[in-house]
Amino acid sequence: MKKKQLLQKERERIMDENGIIYLENVSKSYSTGAPALNGVTLSIGRGEFVFVVGDSGSGKSTLIKLLLRELTATSGSVYVMGSDLAKLKHRQIPKFRRNLGVVFQDFRLLNDRNVFENVAFAQRIVETPTSEIRRNVPRILATVGLAGKYKAKTKQLSGGEQQRVALARALVNEPSILLADEPTGNLDPKNSWEIMGLLEEINQAGTTVIVVTHNREIVNAMQKRVITMKKGVIVSDEEEGGYIDED
Ligand code: ADP
Ligand code: MG
Predict the structure, then answer these.
(1) How far apart are CA 247 and CA 245, in angstroms?
(2) Which residue's C-alpha comes closest to atom 14 of ligand 1?
(3) Digits of tens for pLDDT over the chain (247 positions)?
(4) Residue 221 CA from chain centroid, whole number
(5) How far does the centroid of ligand 1 lie from the alpha carbon of residue 58, in Å?
(6) How far apart are CA 40 and CA 19, in angstroms?
(7) Would you say 63 and 73 are in contact if contact means Cβ atoms under 8 Å apart?
């Protein structure tokens, strides 16, 4: 077998045995202060839905940034889709990121463009042919309940609608993993529930979904796996878990 095929086989073996996401004794220190992550070992299987909860400053966003390869671990190993992220070369990062969709609390849309263009942009980056973009964007906008809004400027949309656009943009390239860092942090309860409902549908269609949130009502109601972080450490990891109360 060629070296490339062997590497691919090795990746698949790691993914099947250890999960689509696997962290082994990972620590991350910034130049100042205590480590943001301190000896985290974690495995997430293909197709799981996982909440990550914990106080502000407990390391949740640092975890997400390590998975996106925006940051690299100070020590330990991070595997995503069977690849050791420390071994990824810079030129390999764009291709690696195509496996990941990401949404943030503050939407991060291009506010000088309309809804269609915000979603199409993600496809243009990966050089999708225009004819496919014209097919894919309306379909994904319909999935998130925005079929009629493709010409709207993002500034004319409500927060809930803006987050749906961000979700459509994250999904249009069909990533294997969706990462959401406090996606309902700026939304009212009704829109928060609707976004979480969409995340659940996306997961049921096969995407691995990881959601950082402070929304204890939703976490308690949805009965998913819940990973609780505190000061850079995983303090609990429960199937069908709930939000652990402080004090
Ligand atoms: P969370 O998302 O759970 O609120 P973060 O991962 O953002 O936590 O932060 C974890 C810790 O790392 C905090 O103490 C935070 O102040 C620190 N931190 C995060 N980003 C940086 C940075 N760029 N430089 C220095 N310290 C940081
Ligand atoms: Mg955060």
Answers:
(1) 7
(2) 57
(3) 788 888 888 888 888 888 999 999 999 999 988 999 999 999 999 999 999 999 999 999 999 999 999 999 999 999 999 999 999 999 999 999 999 999 999 999 999 999 999 999 999 999 999 999 999 999 999 999 999 999 999 999 999 999 999 999 999 999 999 999 999 999 999 999 999 999 999 999 999 999 999 999 999 999 999 999 999 999 999 998 888 765 5
(4) 21
(5) 8
(6) 15
(7) no
Ligand 1 binding pocket (C-beta < 6 A) is 30, 32-33, 36, 54, 56-62
115: Cβ contacts below 8 Å, ≥ 6 apart: 141, 146, 149, 150, 151, 152, 153, 154, 157, 165
* Least distant ligand from the CA of 31: 1
Q: Ligand 1, atom 22: nearest CA belongs to which residue?
A: 30
Residues 6+ apart with CB under 8 A from 146: 115, 161, 164, 165, 168
pTM for this structure? Answer: 0.94
